[in-house]
Amino acid sequence: MDSTFIMCIISIAIPLDFIIAYAGRKRLIGFGWTLFLGLFLSPIVSLIAVLLSDRIDEDDELNWGCVPPLVLIVIIISLIFLYKWSQ
C-alpha cells in the first residue's frame, strides 16, 4: 500500500477514536477502555461498545478510570519495542 494512504487513514482514525472515547466517558465502559478498543481494534468496534454500554448515574464513581487500559497500552508498546530490538 502507499504510505500516503496509510497516513490518511491514521489521521482520520485517531481523532475519531478520541471523539468516540469522549462519548464513552459517561458510560460504564469509560473513556480509557473505549480509546483502547478504538486504537487497537477499530473505531467501529469502540462505537458499538459505547452504544451497548449502560450510562452511569451521577452518584456512581468510577474507581480506576483509564488506568487499566493505559497500563495495557504501555505493556503492549514495550513488548513491541522489545521484539523489534531483539532481532
Residues in helix, %: over 70%
- Domain tally: 1
* Number of helical elements: 4
Strand percent estimate: under 5%
Low-confidence stretches: none
**Distance separating the two termini:** 25 Å
Helix-strand category: mainly alpha
Q: What are the defining features of this structure?
A:
single chain; 87 residues; mainly alpha; flat
Quick summary of this structure?
The chain has 87 residues and is mostly helical.
General description of the model:
By secondary structure, the protein is mainly α. The chain has one domain. The protein is 71% helix and 0% strand. It contains four helices and no strands. Helix 1 packs antiparallel against helix 2, helix 1 packs parallel to helix 3 and helix 2 packs parallel to helix 4. The longest helix has 21 residues.
Question: What's the layout of helices and strands?
Answer:
Layout: H1 3-23, H2 30-40, H3 43-52, H4 67-86
